Amino acid sequence: MNGTRAVVLGAGIIGAACARELALAGAAVTVVDRGGPAAATTSHGEGNVLVSDKGPGPELALAQLSRELWPTVLTQVAERSAEGHRAAQAAEWDPKGGIVVATTSAGAHALARFADSQRSAGVRAEPLAPEALREAEPYVTREHTAAVHYGEDAQVQPAGAATALLTDALAAGAALRGGEEVCSGVVRGGRLTGVRTTHGLLEADLFVNAAGPWSGALAARLGAPVGVEPRRGDVLVTTPQPPTVFHKVYDADYVGSVGSGEEESQTSAVVESTRAGSLLIGSSRRRVGFDDRLRPEVLSAVAAKALRLFPSLARVPVMRAYGGFRPYVADHLPVIGADPRLPGLWHASGHEGAGIGLSVGTGRLLLHLVRGEPPPVDAAAFRVDRPAVLRPRQYQQQETT
Amino acid sequence: MTVPAARRVAVVGAGPAGLSAAHAALAAGARVTLIDAAEEPGGQYHRTVPETYGPQRPVRLQHGWRAFERRRRRVLAHPRCTWLPRTSVWALEQPQPEHEGPPRLHLLCAGPADGAGRTRHTLDVDALVLAVGAHDRVLPFPGWQLPGVCTAGAAQALAKGERVAVGERVVVAGSGPFLLPVAASLLDVGSRVLEVLEANTAATTARGWGRRPWELAAQAGKAVELAGHAAVLARHRVPYRTGRAVVEARGDGRVEEVVTARLRADWSVLDGTRRTLAVDTVCVSHGFSPQLELPLAAGCALDERPAPRCGPAGDGGADDARKSGRSGSLGAFVRVDEQQRTSVPWVFAAGEITGIAGAPSARAEGAVAGWSAATGGSTPRDPGRRRALRALRRSRDQGRAFAERLARAHPIGAAWPGWLRPQTVVCRCEETDYGSLCAAFATEAGSASRVAKLNTRAGLGPCQGRICGPTVAELRRRFLGDAPERPAEGLPRADPHRRPIAQPVRLGELAAPSAPLTDPGRRPEEESSS
């Protein structure tokens, strides 16, 4: 790719992963962000690297590719420089595994069926007998009906992970331009050849839209709108606790709410501890546009569901809450690939709450697509010209009727 | 004909500003809910010794005690007042954009600040007065994390509230007139105060206080109060030294000695002036940090006030500072207008969150805010009331002039980071050191405030950056310049004071449903039993 000029629009974790792959492959990469790197969606999430919440299909394949890449990528980053070493440390890679717990008999059946199908797709999903669950998670509710252990689930500190990827991209020659906003595109001969920013004209051979929940609006500015919208999620953080939660533990109905598109608020329990001892408690999903106002009743619902999983946490103080906007696509699949309407424009977005985990696989996949090589996973499902991306309104109407 | 219902006003904070706001709002006919985390009104200033301790001489303990006591009784006994002690406002919920009115208050009622058995309530009012005050600002120095180093405010709270001495051999150090009453309180409970150290040079302080001295006449009460404390110090032969600071604390497991040093006007250390002194306690205060989480949660705009330049500056200190761009900022305060209105409709602010000016000014601001909240800021028809309001505003304006002078006389010198070493702890909760912070700011890919915070953990611990937040923000500014960080659409600007959960709330409390306090005038326990 020597000589190829690439501009990555968005310095979140997806932009960082794409910039890293392109720069390591020899492209001259510039990363542009209107704010600071990793300061928006990336640093307002939980840091999930999950295979457990995905059923067989293209997204699971991308998750499996990413899960395989993560430890290698972080080792490479750490070995490249002292700065990279520090950043890789801050990524807090923790292959702790996940445990999904069902609390109703219907939930137990659904979980068993789901785990079965995942196993057929190569996921390690082991049912846990009550004693085994108690041993793995001594404080989890006794009122459960089934539990499955997912040994491949892992966790990162998302801002640190993004810093690590971007630091490595910069070490490979990429340039970072923060505080610079893209205003419009420059199209010559039907091809996107440049973007006008608040700082001037930026020309390149290819442009990657990695602006997360803002990528719908950014693509519209470039003349090729895509159906990516914000969906808000809130997370509670407790004061540091002695070790009480050992895996990423979540309620079986989390899987259902990940896949839902309802506008009204959805909550389900996801509980895990961080290296510093705080517990992270999620999660909610609300389609409220870019509305950042705190909704105590949403936090209350999240807390109530978490206590159903871990009743003994009732006296633990919550000291912080944060919320972020996740890039939502109506069919719940990311958008990765070339825009057929505007040559020169590529998209890497729409990962909703899974973007942290899927970032490294997305970067690798994008590189293959840009080079025209056979991709490591089937990318057809992520293509841009599908109804949910190009005609989101009609798609949603059809879905609901 | 129907009588219009009295306006419902919530006052958060029952210190001098809040109590005064409640008093004025009641006088103007409002129904008032007065909320404070403490058992008794008074705030940090009129901190009261619990009745069980039976203080013999409260009048000697406190300035303006009688007036405070009178106001306290009047407010609490008023039939239109609901007093909610031991109540935290843990969140403010902004209304829908089209909805008029202040945010909804989310309360945790009746229980010690972090205790069990609290109940969650909501409160909707017509107007909200925020009078939540300030806490000590403490700059880091090597060893400040050792047991035995405490904030001057904590030492005074123990002395005034529980008659407990924090130590036997104590140095009081930092900057500002607050050092004097703290030292006096410590002497009062039997500590031996070895020295009181004001970091600013006598020249800086004199220049700050000395400009247009006639403006100070209105603050005569404050001067008398300070003179009283100074006399106590003199009687106990406690030396008060200017241009000297504690630049290091040392000890094995707790403070055993401090290193003090002479400072230049910019707080850089003069070589050859270090002295060690055996102590068991150091009380530090470098001024005050306004408690801005609730104003920010309500959406109030802040004003960033540039710090006056230290050192041999001309008349226009603040302008010089802006030009040089190096001496940082005095910090942010809530922006208010003549009526104490904030930028958010029906939210008013009074006291230290609008500027550090002391109790007399806070009382005047509180009264103006209480009146405005209860009446919408209309001019009273009664000429006596009109005169009284004018006098209050005058007193408030004098207080603001005093605040500005105070800031000029006791600025934070720009060179204080020179005291730090790479391994000096900056965030005590998470033990983040200065070296890691510098490395984070120097990492191009990780220098955004929020990202540096997550990667170093500075400010993520139990105090949620209340102590280190402004310090980390200032260190970052020094490293990366003043350019403001642009937030993405929908996300708030990075601010060291932003804490959407303003007070810790237990998971069980949060999970339980909340009941609205529908009628201010009744206490939650009555409500639940009825």
Short description:
The complex is a heterodimer of chains A (about 400) and B (about 525). Chain A has helices at about 15-25, 60-80, 80-90, 105-120, 130-135, 160-170, 215-220, 255-260, 295-310, 355-370, 385-390, 390-400, and strands spanning about 5-10, 30, 50, 100, 125, 145-150, 155, 175, 180-190, 190-195, 200-205, 205-210, 230-240, 250, 265-275, 280-285, 315-330, 335-340, 345-350.
Enumerate the spans of chain B where pLDDT stays under 50 for 5 or more consecutive residues: 50-61, 308-328, 521-530
Largest sheet of chain B: 5 strands, parallel
Class of the largest domain in chain A, according to the CATH hierarchy?
Alpha Beta
Shape of chain A: globular
CATH homologous superfamily (4th level) name of the domain at 8-134 and 290-300 and 335-378 in chain B: FAD/NAD(P)-binding domain
Number of domains of chain A: 2
Q: What is the CATH class of the domain at 8-134 and 290-300 and 335-378 in chain B? A: Alpha Beta
Radius of gyration of chain A: 21 Å
Percentage of residues in helical conformation of chain B? 25-40%
CATH topology of the largest domain in chain A: FAD/NAD(P)-binding domain
Structural class of chain B: alpha/beta
As laid out across the biggest beta sheet of chain A, the strand order is 5-6-4-14-15-16-13-17
* Strand fraction of chain B: 15-25%
Q: Tell me which CATH architecture of the largest domain in chain A applies here.
A: 3-Layer(bba) Sandwich
| Terminal-residue CA separation of chain A | 47 Å
| Large-scale geometry of chain B | globular
Order of the strands making up the biggest sheet of chain B: 3-2-1-7-20
Overall pLDDT of chain A: 94
